[in-house]
C-alpha cells in the first residue's frame, strides 16, 4: 500500500516535469499543477496508507486455555445477540467450531440475502415455530443460561469476531448443520468445510464476501 502512494506521487512529479520541459511554465503554474494533483488523493486514503497497519489475525488460538486467558468480554446489543446465539447453538462445540458458527452469522450480515445486523440475522423468523433460522429462537423454550462459564467463553469468541481478530475459517459459508442430520437444502448449496460436528455451506453462485 505504501508503494501505491509512492507511485501516485511519482506520477504527479513526472507529469510536472514533463509539463515543465514541454512549455515555458512558471514556478507558480507548476505549483498549481502539483497542488491539484495532490488534492486528487483522498485525505482518508493518504492517512490510511501512511499510518502503521493495525495487527489482525495475530495470536488467536483455538484453545480453551487461550480463550480463558483473554480479558472479560462486553459489548452492546450486537455482541449480546451473538454471544447468546453461540451459547445456545454451539457451546458444546470445539473453540474453533464456535468461531466458525459466529463467522456464518457475520457472513449473513454481509449478504444481501439476510438482515443487515447480527440481531436481525439471529432473530429472522422468530415467532414462527420451527421456521426460524436458529432453532433456539423459536422452539418454544425459554432461553435460560445455566452455564455461566460457557457463556463467558462464547462472549469472548463473539468479541473477537466482531473486532475482526480472526482469519476466515469457512470460505464464506452462510449455512451449517450438524453431522447428525442431512437436511434437504444442503444438496443445493456448495459445501465449504467441516469443523467439529458442523458442516458448512455457501450459496453455489455467490458468497457472503462477494
From TrEMBL:
Transmembrane segments: none annotated. InterPro entries: Cell_wall_hydrolase_SleB, SleB_dom1. Residues 1-22 form the signal peptide. Residues 92-201 form the Cell wall hydrolase SleB domain. One of its GO terms (molecular function) is hydrolase activity. The keyword Hydrolase applies. It comes from the Bacteria. Keywords: Hydrolase, Signal. This is Cell wall hydrolase. The lineage of its organism: Bacteria, Pseudomonadati, Pseudomonadota, Alphaproteobacteria, Rhodobacterales.
Amino acid at each position: 500500500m505504501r508503494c501505491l502512494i509512492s507511485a501516485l506521487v511519482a506520477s504527479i512529479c513526472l507529469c510536472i516535469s514533463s509539463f515543465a520541459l514541454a512549455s515555458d511554465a512558471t514556478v507558480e503554474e507548476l505549483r498549481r499543477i502539483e497542488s491539484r494533483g495532490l488534492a486528487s488523493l483522498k485525505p482518508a486514503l493518504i492517512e490510511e496508507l501512511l499510518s502503521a497497519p493495525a495487527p489482525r489475525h495475530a495470536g488467536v488460538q483455538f484453545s480453551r486455555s487461550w480463550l480463558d486467558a483473554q480479558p472479560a468480554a462486553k459489548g452492546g446489543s450486537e455482541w449480546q445477540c451473538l454471544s447468546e446465539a453461540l451459547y445456545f447453538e454451539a457451546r458444546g462445540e470445539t473453540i474453533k467450531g464456535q468461531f466458525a458458527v459466529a463467522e456464518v452469522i457475520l457472513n449473513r450480515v454481509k449478504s444481501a440475502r439476510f438482515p443487515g445486523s447480527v440481531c436481525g440475522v439471529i432473530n429472522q423468523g422468530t415467532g414462527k415455530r420451527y421456521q426460524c433460522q436458529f432453532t433456539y429462537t423459536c422452539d418454544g423454550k425459554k432461553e435460560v443460561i445455566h452455564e455461566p462459564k460457557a457463556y463467558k467463553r462464547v462472549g469472548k469468541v463473539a468479541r473477537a469476531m466482531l473486532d475482526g481478530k480472526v482469519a476466515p475459517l469457512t470460505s464464506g459459508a452462510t449455512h451449517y448443520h450438524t453431522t447428525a442430520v442431512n437436511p434437504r437444502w444442503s444438496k443445493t448449496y456448495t459445501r465449504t468445510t467441516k469443523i467439529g460436528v458442523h458442516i458448512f455451506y455457501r450459496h453455489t453462485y455467490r458468497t457472503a464476501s462477494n
